[in-house]
Model the fold of this input.
Amino acid sequence: MMHTALIVDDSKLARDILRKLLQDAGVNIINEAVNGLDGYKMYQQYKPSLLICDIEMPKITGLKLVEKIRETDSEIQIIVASSVRNSTTIKKLIYLGSQILKKPITETAFTQVFNNLTSARDMILRSEKWKA
Done:
């Protein structure tokens, strides 16, 4: 199954880098938002299988965005890309099922996080098939 992704980051450079890395990984990018509020509206409209967002953004933060999405969607895969080193925020995001991608974003770090995400999804799908 191919991912459909929504990128939410106020940095044009970060969005450009993420777009290229996602396209190289064969991911279909359905849209991009420059703040958390627009990102949430686009999430509701498009229901992507993958969300990639920043933590520090205008209108609502990445943490608030992830919390709002998790209220109704436990399936969406989430990668949070950020230079923030606030351990409380990072712990909350991990608790909410997010993978953390440190900025500045490198191809190596992205590939590692994306592969972790993909292998975790594959394990869940395999375990659900065994239950059936």
Summary: The radius of gyration is 14 Å.
